[in-house]
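Long-time lurker, first post. I've been practising inverse folding by hand and with some scripts of my own, and I keep getting stuck on stretches where the structure tokens seem ambiguous. Below is the full token string for one chain I'm working on. Before anyone asks, I'm not after the true native sequence, just a reasonable design that respects the backbone. If someone could post their per-position residues I'd love to compare against what I wrote down in my notebook.
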């Protein structure tokens, strides 16, 4: 049976925090999906212990998943136009596709709600089509927000057609601080999505997903999923590592180099000067927020930029050095110690 990250839409310890945390509000303006967003994620192996501790709910909590590294596999993630995803004509009501690894979730995003119309995963030969879509988000989302929606459709698993009908309940059940191997994130809202399909039948399944969302980040920081069928229980986990640039060809042409890495007081950045117009160099944290804009001054008659940057004032952690030019973006992962 398939281990699924996506059909329920969107680390060993979780405990109550003693420090009060501001209550976040997730809105369409600050956190809705945007076509073209690209991220780097990591898929991990988890089981019942991790999922049980992840279930902690409430106000001003701290979820510490800093040791979530077992079976780590890097996976791309992002948001595509439906036309750019596999099988674009089969789900005409969808206008976006969310990608996590090799899995695609087809959604209709109206700006006020997100409805799931289907899913596709090539390596497992799995597809899902909802004739009555499952609503998975309603904006704005605040602590204790909840709603339930009915859905129906069919799933195709390696040629076996399975009818699916049931209900999905979405609840914003907690907020606080999230810690993953990518960093520490304050004022995060935790969503629980419970999808019950085909109850009391041989095709019964219950999928529970926890998503941790942050204002300004247009993708879950962390997702944990448990799927229970008559054939057993499957778990999956996926956390966000950072934003990605869009042009590998440009990266090769620029030959962007960053050293030393890890860095302490100073960082040297080198890249070719392609005379492609204005250049912007910035330091970005792993949820896409710009920490600083760095000066770029090309030496006269030089074909290479060689910049020394003082990073001693920035907090220790993992960042992305982002170079933007000619409507393209290239990034390098940087560790400050």
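-- Answer (accepted) --
I ran through it position by position. Result:
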């Amino acid at each position: 049976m398939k281990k699924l990250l996506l059909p329920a839409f969107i680390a060993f310890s979780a405990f109550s925090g003693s420090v009060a945390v501001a209550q976040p509000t997730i809105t369409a303006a600050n956190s809705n999906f945007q076509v073209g967003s690209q991220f780097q994620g990591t898929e991990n192996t988890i089981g019942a212990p991790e999922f049980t501790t992840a279930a902690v709910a409430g106000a001003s909590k701290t979820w510490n998943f800093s040791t979530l590294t077992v079976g780590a596999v890097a996976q791309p993630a992002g948001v595509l136009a439906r036309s750019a995803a596999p099988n674009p004509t089969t789900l005409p009501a969808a206008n976006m596709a969310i990608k996590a690894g090799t899995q695609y979730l087809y959604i209709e995003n109206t700006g006020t709600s997100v409805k799931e119309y289907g899913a596709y995963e090539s390596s497992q030969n799995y597809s899902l089509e909802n004739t009555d879509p499952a609503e998975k988000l309603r904006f704005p989302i605040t602590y204790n927000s909840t709603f339930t929606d009915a859905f129906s459709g069919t799933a195709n698993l390696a040629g076996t057609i399975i009818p699916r009908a049931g209900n999905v309940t979405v609840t914003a059940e907690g907020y606080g601080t999230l810690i993953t191997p990518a960093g520490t994130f304050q004022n995060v809202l935790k969503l629980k999505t419970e999808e019950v399909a085909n109850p009391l039948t041989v095709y019964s399944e219950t999928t529970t997903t926890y998503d941790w969302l942050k204002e300004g980040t247009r993708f879950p920081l962390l997702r944990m999923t448990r799927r229970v069928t008559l054939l057993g229980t499957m778990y999956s986990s996926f956390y966000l590592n950072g934003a990605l640039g869009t042009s590998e060809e440009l990266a090769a042409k620029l030959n962007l180099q960053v050293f030393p890495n890890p860095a302490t007081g100073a960082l040297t950045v080198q890249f070719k000067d392609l005379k492609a117009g204005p250049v912007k160099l910035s330091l970005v944290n792993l949820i896409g927020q710009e920490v600083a804009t760095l000066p770029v001054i090309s030496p006269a008659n030089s074909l290479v930029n060689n910049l020394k940057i003082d990073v001693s004032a920035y907090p220790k952690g993992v960042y992305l050095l982002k170079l933007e030019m000619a409507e393209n973006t290239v990034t390098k992962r940087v560790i400050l110690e």
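A couple of notes from the structure itself: The longest helix spans residues 48-54. The chain has two domains: 13-243, 248-336. Happy to go over any region you disagree with.
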